[in-house]
Each structure stands twice: as structure tokens, then as C-alpha cells.
């Protein structure tokens, strides 16, 4: 009898059954697999592991555990069927091995169950790029707050888990395990995912108490757990949760089936012909399922049904994975854009069919006819080949970027020459490629990606040997992907040779991306305001004239706007107490929240600074002409009385007029205070000599003003010592700066928008200066006069937070929350360890710094005050940059409303007292502040990342020109700090930085540990990834894990 039929009939010999058991195909697992429904959590394709949302766990390596008895040796009872005996054997001997249970710390078989609701931890740790290191996260927390409490999943929240090309499945969030979010799916299986990749969640759907019985059967170490293994939640234990998830799934499917004729036409109903529309999921559902009924509350099942339809039209309905779970907002692409993409995609398909038919018919000596679309593509490719050939006479192709000009003198002016015109069909193909390369519109859309790659391959210009990098495998250099697409658009004269794609992020909504209708209207109204400013001072009657008080504005020469200054006065009869006044520009006294310029600021969120240019939040004519701090300009002042220990004794807020303003640079300040502390710097310059800066005479200060500056430094040191004692940290990285000059006479870079009318050839390259102050260690314990402004701005934010908290005013507070952690030491114990390590070694190891900063928590934005452990203050509100940060404007509006109330009534304002009628007094209610956090926090994060990416782009361009084209000398070896490690021993990839230049780097196939310091050489500069690949020379240091 055939072996398959033998197995099907149950007549299988004992030895074959034993072999099956050794292959981990036990009876219970086979039955559970057969019982799965149609919504199985899909297996991750091997080639898609890098992009999968739900990770398949790695099978643990077998260890030397005692063998299970061979069932052949077990005596067989008479007349007992083989299957029955196998089931008895499985019950007696088939328990999971010790090795398997090592991933399940709470499993009943381990006899140490710790099954309680306290084990269910919220998902505080949102990943960066799906797998961020604690080292990276800690470094970022010193800057902008990147998350809000709304981003955290809680036990019982239901989410969609997705993989490319598959329908999503419902799962319930159980707990957070470090960087892994743990879920239990509708299939009765556990799964782990990066929290940042979960795009949709419905809060509070399932009672967390129902999840308690599941916890003992869930992995505690996802890296060791095998999703195909024998340890899963028993069906009877999982049944209540599975039933609820299946009920939601079936209800959503029922809505989708009955409303398919409406839901599937969502794009035709909602899209505009030429403009992008932004709509939330609830708005879309109401418009489709209950048009005209404003009272209808959308049930979760309806949201799931509508999401299914939108996900089937992924390109037409764009969502940003970085913020979608928080905002649930979709950008509905214009019909024109969709028409272009679909048309060009069809043209490329026709061209590929033509090529296939040409090969097929070659034997018959008959040539197929071009379709119209295939002809368009063929003509475009012919033109592209000519343009590429011409470009390579002037610039060498490199990986993801063209090289520098082959002719011309360094520092000379750039020149432009024009080539062939592009036809209408060419323009559509170019738009198609730009959507792929610049704005990333085809992410996870394999069909569109393949179409683009095939188009570039058809040119024949990007095969093996075209791009030459010594030591780099040719298969990497010849791989056709988005990096090749960027190079192609540069070589055919569409994109500038110096195109910084960071500024093309669609979510930034900068002028580099097509503007929305709303932005066009705002710009039109802003221009009318410029011609006839209608500014009226709402705080005019409450302003104090600061008269002769010297206000010191400490900033670099050429600062775009001056929005803060500081002054100091000694407290009478005290040698150690000071009043510190932080003076801030006051545009909100002239612009209410409905003003046109306020609308512009809300749209921009922040001023976006890149090395080549700045995109201001408010128009330059308004900031420089009306609101930047200067003589006789309005200000709002945050004042604090502090003692010699840096303790804040008293605070107040008052409006005023600045009179005596002195501008001073940080270096001039250090000189005046006789601070000659040396800093170890690295500088790299390519493209010519850096133009000499305009020299200005040093500021003239009187003896009393010099004493003011000394007192400010004394106060700054006291404030830092107090913050440090409270656990605050100061990071030593991120000190690199990049400056550009288009030529020796022009700083910055002219923006050359994509040329879609005709090919453009740009000759010449900018001068790039990369400067970095080398950190002595990852964390720093001392400050210099250059840190005075930083300390005073934190003090101003602390003063604002304290003042608002006393009055229960909802604003955007910044603080930290503690994520779940496996750390065995308390925060205080780690702080003591950090201090003792610094005293002993004079530096802090990377590993210890990462542990400590992780223990301090994760920075968030919230509508009520909470401590900020990372900077070491009780509470914090950003208020010192209202000319370049919209969240500061919101805080100013709230504060000014309360100040006016108190001046009018003589009573202290309290937003919680009914008699105050806060709804009529404050411009923003608590609910509106919550909505502002939801809207602004994701954009703040994107802007922070954009500024970082832009700086890294220009730094890697400078390295490429120095390393490959020898425009400047580089060291033979570099230090490399390992920040995160992925992969298995012998095949791992580490990521980190070159601290001398603060440059991202990665190293392959070398066994590394987080916190390592290596000596390395450069292997390749990848401008597209804004990173460098390095090769190891030797390991410099590896500290054992500190206990």
C-alpha cells in the first residue's frame, strides 16, 4: 500500500511514527493546524523577512536534553489501536522539552508560574524603523518628544496584523516584551510585532482579565520561541478571546458583503480631480455608510469593513505608518495622479509584452507591432540612453547618486545647460518614477516597484560593472532599486546632482511637494496681510518696559530669527540668589489662533532647517520685520528666582517691551568669560576653500554687563548640578554641523526643482564643510559657557509648566513615562553606578549609558504635567521658540488668556473652577489640546528625522567626494561605536556611528555586541542610505555586562 494511504488510514509502523514525532509533528499540533480558519496568520516568506510585520520566530538550536523514550520499546496492550497507544504515549512523554520551555518563563511546566495582571504591560516602547536600539532612543530623548500617550497599546486593545500581499488578521494586544509587542490572534496563535508597524488599533475591546489565563502559555523571550513549535495556548483557555475576535471579524465581513457596492466605490465618491483630500477613517465611514446622518456613531466592525476596502486600494488611499494608528488619517490621492500611475503602469506592461513577443517571434522572423503605450516607453528609453551617455561625460555614476563634476575649478559658480525636451508621455513616466524614488509612494507595492525596476533595467545602462567601488560586491552595486531610480533621474537631467530626498517626504507638506489647496489659500491670504499688516497687541495694557535691563541674545551670526534672550538680576540682601528672566518673542499677542499666519504655522508645525536651506514656519517678513527680539519689540518673560543650589524658589510670567538688547555669539561669550577649554574637533572640507566669514567687531560690554554674564554662567552651573542630581543627563553626541556654499560668494544652495519640461545639465558642486566636536564619552558631566542658553531655556520651560500647572491650564506638557524593562537595577542604583563609573574611568561606557537612559523612561507629550526624568526637572512646556514652533504658540495663547483674566479680575485663574468659565476664557479646551498632541506629535517626529537625515545626506556626500574622488584627505582608520546588532552569530549586521564625524555606519558578518568600540576602515559610502559601510581592523573595547 502506498505510504500516503497507510498514513491516512492510521496503519503506520511505530518507527515511522517515532520519526514523525522527532520532526515535532505531534498529534495536537497537527489537529490544531487542520482546525485553523481561512484567516491564518500567514507564514513570512523567506525573502520578505526584512519587511514582514509579523515576525516568525527562529527555531531554537537543539541542546543536550535527555531523549524521550522510543515508543517502539513500549509494550503494546492487546487489541489497543496504534493511534490510541500513540495518544497515550504523547500524554505521558510528549511534554515540551526544557529547551523549548526556556522561551516560556511562565509556563506551568516550569513550576514557577507568575500569572497575574501585573504581567500585562502597556506598549510604551514604540520602535524606530521597526527595530530601534535603546542607544538611539536615548540619544533622541534629549531633543524633541517623539511620542504621546495615545501611541501606547494597552492590554485588551484589538489591532490588525498585516503582511504584504495578505489580508490582515485581528489580534489582541497582551503585553510588551522590551521591543516586541505580544499579541494573540483570531487564529488562536501568539505573534510578535514591532509596535511601530501596527497601523490600526481599537482600544479597550477586550477585558484584560480575559487575557490573564493566556499569559502562562505566551513566550517571555520571543527570540527563542518557535511559532511552529508545540507550545501554544490550549484551545479551552483561548476560547473566550478567540470567540470575541471571530465575532468582530464576522461582523466586519457581514458589513462589507452587504455594503460592498458602496464601500468599493469609495475612491470615486471621495477623491478630488486635482487636489489631495485628507480624511479620517470615521469621516470616510460616515460619508459612505450613513451620509447625512451626523448622529450616527461608527461601530468598530464598520471601521474594519471600510479599512478593508481602503487597503485594497492602497495607492489611492495613502496612510503614513509612522502615525496612522494615532491619527487614522488617509490622504486620498487626486484622480489625476492615480490616472497617471495606472496609465504608465499599463504602458510598461505593454512594453514588456512587446519584448517577450519579440523574443518568441525571432525564430519566425516576424516582428510584433508596438502598441501605443509600448511605443511611448520605447521612445522614452531611447531618449534616456542618449541623456545618460551625455551625463556620464560630465559625472560618473555612483550608487544612488552621481559623482562630482569631472571638469571645472573648485568653488566656481554652477552653470546650467539645457538638453532635449520631454514629451507629454515622457512627463508621465517621469512622474511615475518620482513617485517611486522621491516620495516613496510605492512602499510595499511589489507590482509598481517591479515595473519601475524593469523600466530602468531596459535601458541597459545599469548592469554589472557600471558602478565601480573597490571591495564592494558587484551584485549589490548592480541591483536595480530606488537608489538606481534616483541616479537615473539625475542622469536624464530631471533631478539636481545634489538632490536631498529627505525634504520630499509627503507628510512634511513642504513646497518641494505639490501643495494642498488649503496651503495655497493660506499663502494668498498671507501675501495680502504682508501688504497691509493688521497686527493689534492684545497685551498692550499689561506690558512692562524693561528699560535699561540688558537682554542678551546669544546666537550664531546669521540666525534666521531671534526668538529668545536672557537677563539676570541679583536678589537684594542675598549673595547666592538670582532672578533669571527668559525673554521670548511674542507673536501670539498679535495673532489669534484663527489668524492667517497662525494657520500657516499650524500647517508647517515647525521651521524645517536643512544645511542647504530653511523652510520657515512663519513668513520671514513677519518674523524679522515685526516679532524677532530687538529694541522696542514686544516680549513675554518667564522669570524664576533661584538659589545657589539651583533650586527654583519663585516664578512669574509678565509681558513687556525690550529696549536694551545685545547680540552675542557663543564663541564671543566664551572669550569674554575667559573660558579657554579646548575641544577636540574634526573637520572635513570638499569642493574648495571655505569662504571667510564676515568679521564683526567684538561686542562692547561694560563691567556690570560682564558681571551679568559671569552670574549667568554661575546660575547655569547651579541649574545643571540640580538637574544632574535629579537624574538628568546630557549627551555628548549630535554635535556635528554641516555648512554649504554654492560658490565662494553664496552660502547655502539654490533649490532646483525637478525639471520635467526638458533635460537639465548642472555643472559644478557646492563647497561642503563638516565639523564635529568629538565627545569624550556618550554622556557628559560638565558644562561650559556655551551651554548657558540651553540651561536657561530649560528653566523657562520649567517656569511655564509650573505656572500652568498651578492654574490647571491644559497645554502640551513634556515628560517621561517608564517603559517595561528587564533591568534588574532601579533607576537610583543605575544613577549611582553611572556616577561611580565616571569617577573611576572619566567616561561612561555605551552599554551603561543605554541602560541608564532607558531606565529614565521615554519622552512623551501630554495634556497634564508629568516629570521629565531625562532632563531632570519636575515638568516642562516648550515656550521659548514661538517663531519656529507651533506648539509654543499654543502655550502662549493659553497663558495670555489666563494673564488677561487675572489682570481683569484680580483673582488667580483656575481652569477647573466653574466660576472661571474656562471654555470662554482659554482658546483651547483640554480635548482640543489632546487633539493638538495627536496632530502635532507625529509631525514633530517627522521634522526631527528630516533634519537629521538631511544633515546625514550632506555628510555622506562629503565623505564620498573625499573617499572615492580624493577631494580631501581622510584618516586611514576610524573608531566605530556599535549601537545595535541584528542577525545570528557569523552572519550579523551591526549599526552604529563613527564618533569622529557623527556619521551613521554599518558592518557586516562580524560578531559584535552593543557597546563595542572597533577600529575600522571605510568600505563604501552609500549616499542613498546616508550611511557608510565599514570593515573591521580590530576590537578596541568590549566591556562585560555591568551588574
Automatic annotation (TrEMBL):
Entries under InterPro entries matching the protein: NA-bd_OB-fold, OB_CYT4_C, RNase_II/R, RNR_Ribonuclease, SH3_CYT4, WH_CYT4
Molecular function GO labels: 3'-5'-RNA exonuclease activity; RNA binding
Any GO BP: mRNA catabolic process
Domain RNB as annotated: residue spans: 543-901
Pfam families: OB_cyt-4, RNB, SH3_CYT4, WHD_CYT4
SMART domains per UniProt: RNB
SUPFAM superfamilies: Nucleic acid-binding proteins
Annotated region (Disordered), positions in chain: 52-71, 394-413
Any one GO CC term of the record: P-body
Protein name: RNB-domain-containing protein
Native source species: Decorospora gaudefroyi
Amino acid at each position: 500500500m502506498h505510504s500516503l494511504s497507510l498514513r491516512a488510514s492510521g496503519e503506520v509502523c511505530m518507527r515511522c511514527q517515532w520519526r514523525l514525532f522527532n520532526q515535532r509533528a505531534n498529534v495536537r499540533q497537527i489537529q490544531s493546524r487542520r482546525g485553523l480558519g481561512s484567516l491564518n496568520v500567514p507564514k513570512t516568506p523567506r525573502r520578505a523577512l526584512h519587511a514582514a510585520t509579523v515576525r516568525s520566530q527562529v527555531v531554537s538550536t537543539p541542546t543536550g536534553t535527555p531523549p524521550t523514550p522510543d515508543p517502539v520499546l513500549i509494550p503494546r496492550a492487546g487489541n489497543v489501536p496504534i493511534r490510541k497507544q500513540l495518544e497515550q504515549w504523547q500524554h505521558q512523554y510528549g511534554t515540551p522539552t526544557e529547551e523549548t520551555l526556556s522561551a516560556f518563563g511562565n509556563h506551568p511546566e516550569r513550576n514557577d508560574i507568575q500569572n497575574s495582571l501585573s504581567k500585562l504591560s502597556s506598549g510604551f516602547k514604540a520602535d524606530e524603523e521597526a527595530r530601534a536600539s535603546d542607544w538611539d532612543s536615548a540619544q533622541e530623548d534629549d531633543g524633541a518628544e517623539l511620542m504621546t500617550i495615545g501611541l501606547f497599546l494597552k492590554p485588551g486593545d484589538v489591532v490588525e496584523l498585516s503582511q504584504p500581499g495578505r489580508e490582515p488578521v485581528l489580534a489582541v494586544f497582551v503585553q510588551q516584551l522590551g521591543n516586541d509587542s505580544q499579541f494573540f490572534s483570531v487564529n488562536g496563535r501568539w505573534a510578535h510585532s514591532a509596535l511601530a508597524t501596527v497601523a490600526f488599533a481599537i482600544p479597550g475591546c477586550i477585558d484584560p482579565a480575559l487575557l490573564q489565563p493566556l499569559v502562562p502559555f505566551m513566550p517571555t523571550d520571543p527570540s527563542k520561541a518557535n511559532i511552529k513549535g508545540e507550545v501554544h495556548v490550549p484551545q479551552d483557555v483561548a476560547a473566550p478571546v478567540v470567540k470575541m475576535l471571530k465575532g468582530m471579524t464576522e461582523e466586519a465581513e457581514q458589513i462589507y458583503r452587504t455594503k460592498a457596492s458602496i464601500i468599493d466605490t469609495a475612491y470615486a465618491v471621495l477623491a478630488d480631480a486635482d487636489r489631495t483630500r485628507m480624511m479620517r477613517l470615521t469621516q470616510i465611514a460616515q460619508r459612505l455608510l450613513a451620509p447625512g446622518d451626523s448622529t450616527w456613531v461608527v461601530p468598530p466592525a464598520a471601521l474594519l469593513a471600510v479599512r478593508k476596502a481602503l487597503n485594497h486600494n492602497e495607492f489611492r488611499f495613502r496612510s503614513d505608518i509612522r502615525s496612522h494608528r494615532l491619527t487614522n488619517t488617509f490622504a486620498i490621492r487626486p484622480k489625476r495622479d492615480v490616472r497617471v500611475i495606472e496609465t504608465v503602469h499599463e504602458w510598461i506592461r505593454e512594453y514588456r509584452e512587446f519584448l517577450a513577443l519579440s523574443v518568441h517571434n525571432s525564430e519566425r522572423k516576424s516582428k510584433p507591432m508596438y502598441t501605443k503605450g509600448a511605443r511611448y516607453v520605447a521612445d522614452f528609453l531611447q531618449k534616456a540612453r542618449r541623456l545618460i551617455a551625455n551625463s556620464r561625460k560630465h559625472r560618473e555614476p555612483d550608487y544612488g547618486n552621481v559623482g562630482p563634476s569631472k571638469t571645472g575649478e573648485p568653488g566656481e559658480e554652477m552653470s546650467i545647460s539645457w538638453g532635449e525636451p520631454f514629451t507629454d508621455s515622457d512627463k508621465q513616466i517621469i512622474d511615475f518614477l518620482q513617485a517611486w524614488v522621491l516620495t516613496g509612494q510605492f512602499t510595499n507595492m511589489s507590482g509598481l516597484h517591479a515595473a519601475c525596476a524593469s523600466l530602468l533595467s531596459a535601458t541597459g545602462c545599469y548592469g554589472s560593472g557600471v558602478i565601480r567601488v573597490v571591495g564592494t560586491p558587484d551584485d549589490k552595486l548592480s541591483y536595480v532599486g530606488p537608489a538606481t531610480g534616483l541616479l537615473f533621474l539625475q542622469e536624464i537631467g530631471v533631478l539636481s546632482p545634489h538632490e536631498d530626498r529627505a525634504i520630499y517626504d509627503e507628510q512634511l507638506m513642504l513646497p518641494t511637494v505639490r501643495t494642498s489647496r488649503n496651503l495655497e489659500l493660506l499663502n494668498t491670504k498671507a501675501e495680502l496681510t504682508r501688504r497691509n499688516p493688521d497686527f493689534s497687541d492684545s497685551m498692550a495694557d499689561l506690558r512692562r518696559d524693561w528699560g535699561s535691563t540688558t537682554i542678551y541674545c546669544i546666537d550664531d551670526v546669521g540666525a534666521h530669527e531671534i526668538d529668545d534672550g536672557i537677563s539676570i538680576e541679583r536678589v537684594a540682601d542675598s549673595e547666592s540668589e538670582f532672578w533669571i528672566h527668559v525673554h521670548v518673542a511674542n507673536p501670539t499677542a498679535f495673532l489669534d489662533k484663527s489668524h492667517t499666519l497662525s494657520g500657516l504655522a499650524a500647517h508647517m508645525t515647525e521651521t524645517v532647517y536643512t544645511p542647504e536651506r530653511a523652510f520657515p514656519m512663519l513668513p520671514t517678513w513677519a518674523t524679522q520685520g515685526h516679532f524677532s527680539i530687538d529694541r522696542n519689540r514686544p516680549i513675554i518673560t518667564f522669570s524664576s528666582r533661584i538659589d545657589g543650589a539651583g533650586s527654583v524658589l519663585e516664578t512669574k510670567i509678565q509681558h513687556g517691551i525690550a529696549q536694551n538688547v545685545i547680540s552675542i555669539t557663543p564663541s564671543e561669550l566664551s572669550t569674554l568669560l575667559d573660558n579657554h577649554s579646548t575641544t577636540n574637533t574634526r573637520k572635513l572640507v570638499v569642493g574648495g576653500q571655505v569662504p571667510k566669514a564676515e568679521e564683526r567687531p567684538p561686542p562692547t560690554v561694560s563691567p556690570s554687563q560682564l558681571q551679568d554674564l559671569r552670574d549667568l554662567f554661575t546660575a547655569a552651573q547651579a541649574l545643571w548640578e540640580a538637574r544632574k542630581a535629579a537624574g538628568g543627563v546630557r549627551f555628548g553626541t549630535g554635535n556635528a554641523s554641516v555648512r554649504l556654499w554654492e560658490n565662494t560668494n553664496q552660502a547655502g544652495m539654490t533649490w532646483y526643482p525637478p525639471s520635467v519640461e526638458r533635460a537639465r545639465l548642472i555643472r559644478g558642486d557646492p563647497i561642503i564643510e563638516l565639523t564635529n566636536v568629538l565627545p569624550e564619552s556618550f554622556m557628559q558631566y560638565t558644562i561650559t559657557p556655551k551651554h548657558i542658553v540651553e540651561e536657561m531655556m530649560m528653566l523657562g520651560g520649567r517656569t511655564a509648566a509650573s505656572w500652568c500647572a498651578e492654574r490647571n491650564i491644559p497645554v502640551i506638557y513634556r515628560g517621561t513615562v517608564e517603559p517595561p524593562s528587564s533591568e534588574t537595577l532601579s533607576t537610583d542604583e543605575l544613577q549611582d553606578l553611572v556616577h561611580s563609573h565616571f569617577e573611576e574611568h572619566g567616561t561612561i561606557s555605551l552599554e551603561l549609558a543605554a541602560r541608564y537612559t532607558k531606565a529614565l523612561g521615554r519622552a512623551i507629550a501630554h495634556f497634564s504635567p508629568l516629570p521629565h526624568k531625562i532632563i531632570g526637572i519636575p515638568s516642562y512646556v516648550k515656550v521659548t521658540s514661538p517663531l519656529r514652533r507651533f506648539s509654543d504658540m499654543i502655550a502662549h495663547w493659553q497663558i495670555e488668556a489666563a494673564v488677561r483674566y487675572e489682570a481683569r479680575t484680580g483673582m488667580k485663574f483656575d481652569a477647573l473652577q466653574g466660576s472661571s468659565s474656562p471654555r470662554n476664557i482659554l482658546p483651547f479646551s483640554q480635548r482640543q489640546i489632546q487633539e493638538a498632541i495627536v496632530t502635532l506629535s507625529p509631525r514633530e517626529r517627522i521634522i526631527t528625522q528630516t533634519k537629521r537625515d538631511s544633515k546625514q545626506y550632506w555628510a555622506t556626500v562629503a565623505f564620498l567626494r573625499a573617499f572615492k574622488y580624493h577631494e580631501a584627505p581622510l584618516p586611514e582608520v576610524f573608531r566605530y561605536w556599535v549601537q545595535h546588532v541584528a542577525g545570528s552569530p557569523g552572519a550579523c549586521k551591526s549599526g552604529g556611528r563613527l564618533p569622529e564625524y557623527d556619521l551613521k555606519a554599518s558592518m557586516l558578518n562580524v560578531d559584535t555586541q552593543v557597546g563595542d568600540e572597533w577600529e575600522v576602515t571605510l568600505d563604501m559610502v552609500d549616499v542613498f542610505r546616508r550611511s557608510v559601510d565599514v570593515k573591521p581592523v580590530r576590537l578596541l573595547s568590549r566591556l562585560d555586562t555591568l551588574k
